[in-house]
Amino acid sequence: MSRLTRRELLKAGLAAVPAAALVKFGNGRPPSVSDAYAGFPDPVRQWRGDSSVGASLRSGNVSTDSARGAVEQSLRPPTQQRPRFDPRTGERLIPEGFARARPSHSATALRAVFPNLRRHFVFEYYPWYETTPYFHWAEKGHTPPYSIASTMMPALGPYHSMDLAVVEQHARWMADAGVGAIAISWWGRDSNTNRATPLIMDVMRAHDIHVTFHLEPYRADRALFYASDINYLLREYGERRRWDCFLLLDHGTGPAAPVLKTFRTIVPPTAVDCLGVVRTVPDYTADSVWRRQTDAVRENVRPVFDRIVLLADSLDVGRTAAGGFDGIAIYDSFVRPTTWPRAATDFGDNNLLYSFAMNCGFDGYVPVTPADVCDVPQPFEPPVGPIDWLSATSRETAESASRLRMHESLETTMQLQADPRRNNSARRFFLTYLTTFNEWHEGTSFEPAKDRSMLLPQERPFNYHNPEHGAWRLELLRTLLRPITSGR
Hey, what CATH topology would domain 6-486 get? Predict the structure, then answer.
């Protein structure tokens, strides 16, 4: 039976999806798809659902915003990319301009403004993994420790996020790569991620890494608690610890300030699920509600900070501004670097800040037993055509594309944020998230994976995508960042 890809689902509009999708998936039967396949969050299992950008594309309403339109345009089927090789050595060739990791003009300008530039590179960090019993590793039919919800097996195996040795190793890897901060994926005060935070902060402090937060959709009405949640985070992990390692971002002039981002902020009131049914979005939040909350945050912090930076994950300029956010931090790797200049112009022209994440693409895991016929994973990003993961040549193609994405995303975000003609530079703001340190479900992790040769016999039947050298992403990141942050 033919299936729509996730890219097709994201591209399809309200008028186009229902007939085609019902024929492909429903065969005339009543829809029985779960909220997850409509892109909605599932807080119980910490499933985040679509981002604001993904939700907007799923709704089909992209024509009113040029940046979102540019993203939709970029999702059209691309020309298949192939790596180029040196005919003498057989080694991959990196495009001209990226041949050596040396400080760019952008890095020189940024270091002149921000003395501790490494604090402005922030790893997305996920402390949601458990082993007793397994949580997150065991999603959708997987049976750890050998079968896990990831396309790659971590070098540390399926670990517990509150294992001190694990957190210590993570901190050493981060510090060695030249990264100066992390953003903890936070699922509310009663969550395992909140319980893990004190330990993580203690370890990160010892390695001179500061901590901020990425607020997740932990309940459908979480927007109503936005101001009180931020107050809690600032009080519990800032004030009570005497700000020992809470990330206060230096803006070059005046006091440093907190910066927090939120996932799934600006979502539409309706979405089209993968059976083509128009559904009400359960966590839709009116702009006026966000505005009351963001105003309350600023009022609450005023005695301590003269500013706080609140970032959404949207490409909707009007709604981001109406909600009272200072700007955006785009998470999704399918929002390609070629679309970022348009977004920077749109947001900058409206005096809004913008942060685009350095990333290595996307490689999401496949469920062992699909829960529904339309449970279709998002394709590999950047697009390279079909990949045979049992073929060394095909794996090489995928790795080459990921390497180029790392180069392209880093250089593009730095250029856009350091450009003196643009808003970020005028506002003395620079922030680059690194997507991600350890989101293993989506294949975005810079955390080392096992070398392919080190996979256990019990792990090999699951066709993991582990590369020949499992630490290449982190090592390339270190090579790229060190000259930028240190000038050497």
Answer: TIM Barrel (3.20.20)
Q: Quickly tell me which residue has 């790893």 as its tokens.
A: 123
CA–CA gap between residue 174 and residue 289 (Å, rounded): 37
User: What are the C-alpha distances in Å from 290 to residues 55, 65, 323?
Assistant: 17, 20, 5
In this structure, the number of other CB atoms found within 10 A of the CB of residue 101 comes to 18
Spatial neighbors of 427 by CB under 8 A, at least 6 apart, are: 251, 351, 353
Helix (H, G, I), strand (E, B) or coil at 134: strand
Rounded to a whole number of angstroms, the distance between the first and last alpha carbons of the chain is: 56
384 with 80: CB under 8 angstroms? Answer: yes
* DSSP string computed for 160-206: -TT-HHHHHHHHHHHHHHT--EEEEEE--TTSHHHHHHHHHHHHHHH
Cα–Cα distance, 297 to 228 (Å, whole number): 8
d(CA 224, CA 42): 18
The values of phi and psi at residue 283, to 5°, are -110, 20
Please compute, for residue 244, the number of CA atoms within 13 A of its CA located in the half-sphere on the CB side.
14
DSSP code at position 138: T
- Residue 488's pLDDT band (cuts 50, 70, 90): confident
Residues 6+ away with beta carbon under 8 Å from 368:
140, 141, 142, 147
d(CA 19, CA 3): 14
Q: Could you identify the residue written with the tokens 């955390």?
A: 447
pLDDT tens by residue, 86-123? 444 444 444 443 333 344 678 888 988 998 999 999 99
Q: Please state, in angstroms and rounded to a whole number, the distance separating the CA atoms of residues 59 and 250.
A: 38
Nearest to 127 by CA among 72, 51, 203, 55: 203
Vertex 318: Cα angle to 313 and 319 (nearest 5): 50
- Interhelix angle 226-234/287-301, nearest 10 degrees: 30
Instruction: Give the helix/strand (H/E) hosting 212.
Output: strand 210-215
Q: What is the domain partition of the chain in residue ranges?
A: 6-486
- CA-based Rg of the chain, rounded to a whole angstrom? 22
Cβ(119)–Cβ(429) under 8 Å? no
- Cα gap 106→262, rounded to integer Å: 27
Q: Among 124-128, 375-379, 482-486, which is the least confidently predicted range?
A: 375-379
Tell me the β-bridge partners of 121. 432
Summarize pLDDT for 152-186 with one digit per residue, the tens.
Answer: 999 999 999 999 999 999 999 999 999 999 999 99
My answer on whether omega of the bond before 337 falls inside 30° of 0, hence cis, is no
pTM for the model stands at 0.88
Q: How many CB atoms lie within 10 A of CB 384?
A: 21
